[in-house]
Amino acid sequence: PINLVWQKRARPAETMWRIGLAFGLGVALEALLGWLLKRRRASSSTAIEVIFFPSKVTCTEELLAGVPCVCPLPHGESALSRLLVRVLEARRSLDLCFFAFSSPQLGRAVLLLHSRGVRVRLVIDSDYMALRGSQIGPLRRAGIPVRHDQDRGYMHHKFAIVDKKVLITGSLNWTTQAIQTNQENVLVVEDQALVNIFVAEFEKIWENYNPANYTFFSKHEKTGIENA
């Protein structure tokens, strides 16, 4: 009888313990589920497109002119057309940082964006600005700001930033040879944390290559000129 009474008295406490345990497990499971969903959303927010070159030759006139083309060239998708589509998605800004830029199709795409009011900036290597077919002249004449290095090392970056949200990078220079002949790769990445790193790098280079900061003479030469 004593044991029975004890058991009866113990049951409410045991019941409360079980309720507390169930509640605690429920909260823990809810927290775990929330964490897993957050991880899943975070991982799914990174979109990557890979484009390999060389590109087959196709007509890109419809992309650049916005009208159907009846030329004899193939009109299907190509590596170049895929790259053009991603570049032409820019609505607010396009920051370009390339070793060489001579592709007429990509040059037209950049000019088209500029005419739409997209803010375009270009950083290029000084030694390759006058490359045969270089697009630097047409871009500058259109009013697009172009800056270049002033040191012995190459400005060897190859990346573009679309609207500060999409990074286009890889081994590809924007040249006809690279596009049509070379084995190259391009990654199109939508990951804000990674994009922000490249945005910071571009801004640093842009400021470093500001013509107002150029030093055209050594300190000794400057002193001699000033004293002349």
From TrEMBL:
The chain crosses the membrane at residues 16-37. Its main location: mitochondrion. It is a single-pass membrane protein. It catalyses: a cardiolipin + H2O = a 1,2-diacyl-sn-glycero-3-phospho-(1'-sn-glycerol) + a 1,2-diacyl-sn-glycero-3-phosphate + H(+). One of its GO terms (molecular function) is metal ion binding. It comes from the Eukaryota. One of its GO terms (cellular component) is mitochondrial outer membrane. It holds the Pfam family PLDc_2. Residues 151-178 form the PLD phosphodiesterase domain. One of its GO terms (biological process) is meiotic cell cycle. PANTHER family: CARDIOLIPIN HYDROLASE, MITOCHONDRIAL CARDIOLIPIN HYDROLASE. This is Mitochondrial cardiolipin hydrolase.
